[in-house]
């Protein structure tokens, strides 16, 4: 049994029992040469399926290019569109207090196929939206193939065309051939094959009576640069206890077929600790060039550094702390860091097989490539993470591409919606140098003025975010009707 998680949610990922699933009759789908005004969508997963549905409903002819079942991945089992590869959960359905629940709401309001089908095949799961995976994928496939202006063409695409309108939504397991084409277009360093996610903390949950702001050796020309890092000091005893806990913590394994390649430059902290008890003190936890402003006379034995993860400054990542510790263990171990005892995590760390592009440098806010504006990217390959976020980016890309084909002008999603917060993060808000996949969370939202910060004000704050988002999202939809 393996685990895969999104943000604070961990999914138990038992291999679903294989049952024979009829494949589609692909021979009945003749190939028609691409026409400029058709929309070609590469990848019929969560994002590609939703993009196709949206564009088709706006009156555009759509061709979905899906490589399965001809070309397989290690995680998919069928030839269906929108196959859920692991957990069957769409996470929280609470649209007032949870950012992913708000994304559900926005997609439902936009006639989203993925949400409507998930609702149809809902399983009991408390406040979460769990889905009966096989009927779900079958229904999505049927709904799309029933549309007169959607065709599915089964085959792998291995190039980035210069003509026509394209959306690439090939997901975390983008085929190797296409990966090579993307690297040739963007440069090798702008396409990652593994994520290396350091845990992300809500800034407001850090105890600033313990932590302080300072860049190593006060480097930088401006005060903002000289205070770019948040530092958490450790005594020798605290460091030794932390190393013990790291070594003892439960770790996750890679899925079969996922295998190595991740070691280049992103060792998990627990692997560093296994190499020697002092390794971290000479690596990401080195205490040099820092003076604790709360206790200048005492040099810390080790220091954990955090750095802004978004332009708003509401999220901070723990520098160099990518990890394969299981989520429960991770939260426990990280809260041993002085200053983080009461930390709330926007997402916990992880390392997974995950192909994604450096969207902040490669895409505009319409999700088009700067270098090839006839191509959009959508879904997990853009650096969002999860079924819901991927479908959401598909919904947006589908509408934006269709509007462009129809000669309509359509702004990207409003900033204060969940959809807008996410697309803004990947195409501009995130730091390109440290860009790693992101799930939707309230840390991506602009603050609502005049509301109490901290844990006490959280309920009112989240309600204000979701109210504002719903109103802005409805405004965006109405403007298109
Ligand atoms: C092992 C694993 C476990 C996961 N577990 C979870 C989980 O439990 N919960 C969760 O929310 N998310 C999970 N994810 C992430 C999840 O897969 C994505 O969030 C979601 O499926 C992404 O949607 P997508 O449409 O971007 O990609 P996908 O749903 O993967 O769809 C991409 C499609 O593109 C096709 N494709 C790829 N390359 C080509 C090509 N060159 N030409 C034509 N077609 C191509 C693929 O066959 C696939 O059908 C997991 C990912 C992996 C790899």
TrEMBL record:
Boundaries of every MnmG N-terminal domain copy: 39-408
EC number: 2.1.1.74
NAD listed as a keyword: yes
Keywords of the record: Cytoplasm, FAD, Flavoprotein, Methyltransferase, NAD, NADP, Transferase, tRNA processing
GO cellular component: cytosol
Binding site for FAD: 43-48
One of the GO biological process terms: tRNA methylation
Domain of life: Bacteria
Subcellular location: Cytoplasm
Co-factor requirement: FAD
Presence of the UniProt keyword ATP-binding in the record: no
GO MF term (any one): flavin adenine dinucleotide binding
Assigned protein family: Belongs to the MnmG family. TrmFO subfamily.
Alphabetical list of NCBIfam families matching this protein: gid_trmFO, PRK05335.1
Function: Catalyzes the folate-dependent formation of 5-methyl-uridine at position 54 (M-5-U54) in all tRNAs.
Protein name stated in the entry: Methylenetetrahydrofolate--tRNA-(uracil-5-)-methyltransferase TrmFO
Organism of provenance: Shimia gijangensis
Gene behind the chain: trmFO
